[in-house]
Amino acid sequence: MQELKRQVKGYTQELEQRKQVQVPHKQELVRQVAEPQNSAGEGSTELQGKLTCRSAFVMDAKTGKVLYDRSADRPGQPASTIKVLTGLIAVESLDNQEMVRTSAYAANMPASKVYLKKGASYQATDLINAVLLASANDASVALAEKVAGSEQAFAQLMTKKAEALGAQNTICKSANGLTRPGQQTTARDLATVFNRAMRNPEFAERMSTVKVHTSDGKVLRSHNKALWTVDGAVGGKTGYTVAAGKTYVGKFQRDGQAIIVSLLGSASMWDDIATLVEHGFAKQEMASLDHENAPAGTRVSLIKQKDQGKERVDYAMLTLTGQKKKIKM
């Protein structure tokens, strides 16, 4: 252990001497590597006491690598985050100018809503924006009935779509996320689905929009205030019901890196989002420290200690490139 500490200390001192561009928090990242961590599958103890959500998940949007996991496979009601599926299916199924007639059932949906009129017809593009930006429950059901004939049939389509996108524990019972018995998702599923959905250029463009005018002149504003309050936000969907608590899924990009953040059951959602975003990018920067700062021929390696009756610990140490790592504890 003393040898490991000496090696990490020596590496840090060498970086101080060699650095050309100073990044204030990189030594903090090295410190974090040496702190105790649980594997992603066990539920991370990182950020303990700093989050209010029941479950959370952060992943690298490009590689799928898990950057943070707090009870990410714990099922819960999704609330309006499930509208990601509603909007994506509508984008893929309907022409923008296609007209959608509003049934009495759709018009009578509770808020949040855009107050569609029973029997009136609206352009699909306006209803899709109403769903993804303004989180409109009435527009969600109107689109569901247009695509599948009924909300129930559309919910089955949503479940199949979620599975096709990689979700394993998502069951949809409504087009808008209002609480239904048996309806569920997980933080991991939300992140997985949203990451795949953002590969659709039209969907991604709508998700990045802060404000848009409908064809009849109304203004729709995004509920995702991360777009103007969190550095690097490129799209996301909020949700809330009493049963679900506050829920969220979103994508963030900085300096060529991209992460997906999701959470369920939050009491202080925007604070949780900010904490998870910073943690996710710090994890990515820690992983890239080797390429950016290590002297030629060296790298920082993670040595994972097997459970020896003590808390699992990941250690940071120097190795020469191509050298096998040998450690005795």
UniProtKB/TrEMBL annotation:
- What would be one Pfam family of this protein? Peptidase_S11
Q: What class of enzyme is it?
A: hydrolase
InterPro entries in the cross-refs: Beta-lactam/transpept-like, Peptidase_S11, Peptidase_S11_N
Q: Which residues form a coiled coil?
A: none
What domain of life does the native source organism fall in? Bacteria
Report residues binding substrate: K237
Biological process per Gene Ontology, one example term: regulation of cell shape
**EC code(s) of this entry:** 3.4.16.4
Q: Where is the active site?
A: S80 (acyl-ester intermediate), K83 (proton acceptor), S135
Its keywords, alphabetically, are:
Carboxypeptidase, Cell shape, Cell wall biogenesis/degradation, Hydrolase, Peptidoglycan synthesis, Protease, Signal
The Peptidase S11 D-alanyl-D-alanine carboxypeptidase A N-terminal domain covers which part of the protein? Answer: 48-265
Keyword field contains Protease: yes
Q: Name one GO molecular function term.
A: serine-type D-Ala-D-Ala carboxypeptidase activity
What protein family does this chain belong to?
Belongs to the peptidase S11 family.
Instruction: List the PANTHER family.
Output: D-ALANYL-D-ALANINE CARBOXYPEPTIDASE (PTHR21581), TRAFFICKING PROTEIN PARTICLE COMPLEX SUBUNIT 12 (PTHR21581:SF6)
> What name is this protein filed under?
D-alanyl-D-alanine carboxypeptidase
Give the taxonomic lineage as stored in the record.
Bacteria, Pseudomonadati, Thermodesulfobacteriota, Desulfobulbia, Desulfobulbales
